[in-house]
Structures are given as C-alpha cells and as structure tokens.
Task: structure prediction
Amino acid sequence: AQKITQTQPGMFVQEKEAVTLDCTYDTSDQSYGLFWYKQPSSGEMIFLIYQGSYDEQNATEGRYSLNFQKARKSANLVISASQLGDSAMYFCAMREGLLGGSARQLTFGSGTQLTVLP
Amino acid sequence: DVKVTQSSRYLVKRTGEKVFLECVQDMDHENMFWYRQDPGLGLRLIYFSYDVKMKEKGDIPEGYSVSREKKERFSLILESASTNQTSMYLCASSWVTGPQSNYGYTFGSGTRLTVV
Result:
C-alpha cells in the first residue's frame, strides 16, 4: 500500500489566489512527522513546513499552512496568495517512528506540479 | 551556509560503465541518503547510512551499492550502468536526534544521469 498519496499530478491556480495540495498518508505508528518540500525547475528540494503527529495546532510558515486532519490521515498544504514563483513540484513526505532515535527515512509521495497563472 | 554538495550536476555514461556519484555534507549529520527521482514516481530510496561504514538498503537497491568511509561523504555506485538507471539522483542528510523539525532532510542539488 502507498504510504503517501498525492492524487493531483497537476494543479493550476490564479496569481493571488489560495490553493490546496492534497496529501494522505498511511501509518500504524503513533509518532510520525509530515513534511512538505518544494522543487522548482532548477531541481533543488526546499523544505517548506513540518507537522508532528502530536502537534495540536496546524503548522504555519508564512504563506504556507498545513491542514492536519489526523483521523482522516490527511496533511494538505495550503498556499495563500499564490505568487508566480510558487510554480514548482510539491512533495509530501512522512517520517515514521520519530521516538525510535534511529535513522528513519522519509517516504515521499509522487508529487503535484503547481502552475501559477498570471 | 550549510550544504550538501553533489559532485556533478549532469553526467552521461555508457551502458556497462561503473559510475560513481559523490555526495559531501558539512553539517556533521549522522544520516545520509540516496534517492532517485522519476516522473510520476516521486523520490524512491536506494540506500541510506546512519554511521560510517554502515549502510542499509532502501526500497530499490538492485543495481546499486554505496560506500561511506568518512562521516561527511556518501558515495553511490552503479556497478554496471544500464539505460533504466537514467534518472535524477538526489543525496540528502539529516540528524538522528534533535528537535523534531530537524528530522527533515537537507538535500543536494541533484545529479541528472543519462546512460546511453
């Protein structure tokens, strides 16, 4: 079974509007972390936002917020007031077993290509 | 500025060649990872290492090996390159312990490998 599912291969949004990128996950761990990364056409992966499974508040970082619905196992990224520079590939990722203290890899979704239209 | 540096941005190799992809980090991270990225498949883990000389297989280790002789350097080796290994390869590093937000990765800029 897919651990991270991103069902939107491509999305379009008008400049200055808000957009939501979907992410659902599957884990039996109680302690895990959810991440969103941005990958522009240049290829580098840019960390955007993090949500811990025990965090009660939804994470926010500037124009980015993470809509965390634990019971539904969803961790959607919301970008407010989209800018042309937001056009990029966006990846949702999960790290399980955070309390274990050992190396735990990130598992990534297949990504969503966001295009911001002028 | 902290960095993960991949030695090559673009590489073209011939089928059957032995290929080395190098990755160096300057953050004293314990963990290092190699992923490959293909359209529609996201990032898939090839190998990772949590200490010098330690390595563990990821989800798609076939056709690859790794070497970690020093903490800061993690090499990916394609023993005999094949055309289906044409891909973008991303190296990353991370802490083992620390504030949870640090459990994310710092990535290199990627190596786009073409095998002809």
